[in-house]
Amino acid sequence: MSRLDRAELAQQGALRADGLRAAGVELVALTFVDNSGIVRVKAVPVDRLWSAAAWGVGASNSFDFFLATDDIVGGAHSRGPVGDLRLHPDLDALVPLAAQPGWAWAPAWRYDQEGEPHPQDARALAAAATARLAELGYNARTAFEIEWVITAADAPDDPRSATAGPAYGFARLSSQAGYLRALVSTLAAQGVAVEQIHPEYAAGQFEVSVAAGDPVRAADVAVLARETIRTVSEQHGLRASFTPKFAPDDVGNGGHVHLSLWDGDRNLCAGGDRRFGLTETAEAFGAGILSRLPALLAIGAPSVLSYLRLEPHHWAGVFRVWGLENREAPLRLVQGPAGQRERAANFEVKCFDLTANPYLVVAALIFAGLAGVQARASLPEPVDVDPGTLPGAERLPTSLADAVTAFEADAALTTAFGPELAATLVDVRRAELDRLGALPPDELCAVMRYLH
């Protein structure tokens, strides 16, 4: 994210607008994700894209202090109703929306009115983390898994209203074959490479996996995929929920992150002389993440509701361990089949969910991993059983309050995020605890069910 060349941005915006008009686009949605994980939006007519690119679109800086419930809270860096920021579309990420004829979408950078980057711009932080990797000679390939529950629109509280049949069963896929086909074709038309889609464990639950890419692009795709799922679901008489816990006794939706570290075209998660083929650098990167998982939960599991999902024996990863293909470990090494490991090997972080801001997630994981590389950290012994069966296994935080405390104490993360963003994240998380922390689980699930 660099200083604004307004003349060049205006020219490029006008050129992109010409192409969009030729494709029938009339409006462009500009999005950013706030500190509570909600995608916020402003839209401009395509004829004003040049102006939005060069001069931005106004948006209050109070969005940094929004909760998922739309309560606006205070904080050390809050200016209340005073001040303005400018949303500048990333023209390189601009895409027509296949499910919404006449519309296009672009993720936005946030600048102040003087043209300086906003210190709480999560997308800019993800770009800075990616740039730091590049400075050290590395790159990362990242992807989010998207899990969601569908219900019939006229029965939004019943996840069995839209599908029936065994978990992972063909019957569930068949019952929504047209919907799933439309979803995949829509994503493909928007440049999202779907690798697989399938019914999941819980009633009405599905998962889509996409190809890995640059960390900022991966976060963009996570936003675009989720909003596409929401739209296509509505067009098929369904309602989509990405909540980490649809109901207290249900299996939750995760937001697993896959991340591999590369040196040019060489995957450092394979072909090395450490355990399971890890290189020394990749092991240190993974160790940096594993050691900081308590603090990382304040980023990747950032809602009160997240902690209803983080239960032992539910494949959510609630003990601080790692292992090869261990789906009960929060840090799982995915090795891939023999013959593909140099391309496929990666770390999967399983304890995160989709209430998280994906840009903050990729930034936090990169900074945590680089702290491990700098310290030449090593991973402990891997665990090849359910860690919940092991005496003395260290439990990750069981509440948002504990995760926030861990985040505040982690100098590597708070320094990388910067004092303003780090403080605001703490303020927002604690405000959510004040607003929602005392709700009984059933009420909490009902409040949060369709917010994200």
Brief digest:
37% of the residues lie in helices and 19% in strands. It has 15 helices and 15 strands.
Q: Which features does this protein show?
A:
nine-stranded mixed sheet; six-stranded mixed sheet; alpha+beta
Explain how this protein is built.
- The protein is 37% helix and 19% strand.
- The protein contains 15 helices and 15 strands.
- The strands form 2 sheets. Strands 7, 8, 9, 10, 11, 12, 13, 14 and 15 form a 9-stranded mixed beta sheet that branches.
- A hairpin with a 5-residue loop joins β8 (194-199) and β9 (205-210).
Topology of this structure?
Layout (H helix, E strand, L loop, with lengths): L5 H17 L4 E7 L5 E7 L3 H7 L1 E3 L25 E5 L5 E2 L6 E10 L9 H14 L3 E14 L17 H6 L1 H13 L4 E6 L5 E6 L4 H21 L2 E4 L15 E7 L2 E2 L12 H12 L1 H8 L5 H4 L12 E3 L6 E4 L6 H4 L1 E4 L8 H17 L25 H9 L2 H7 L1 H18 L4 H8 L4
Parallel strand pairs: 1-6, 13-14
Antiparallel strand pairs: 1-2, 3-4, 4-6, 5-6, 7-9, 7-10, 7-11, 8-9, 11-12, 11-15, 14-15
Question: For the residues shown, what is the average pLDDT?
Answer: 97
- Helix and strand sequence: HEEHEEEEHEHHEEHEEEHHHEEHEHHHHH
State the helical fraction. 25-40%
Structural class: alpha+beta
Q: What oligomeric state do the depicted chains represent?
A: single chain
Described by strand count, sense and barrel closure, the largest sheet is: 9 strands, mixed
**For the CA atoms, what is the radius of gyration?**
21 Å
- What is the β-strand count? 15
Strand content: 15-25%
**Low-pLDDT segments, ≥5 res:** none
- What would the principal axes of the Cα set say about the shape? globular
The helix tally amounts to 15
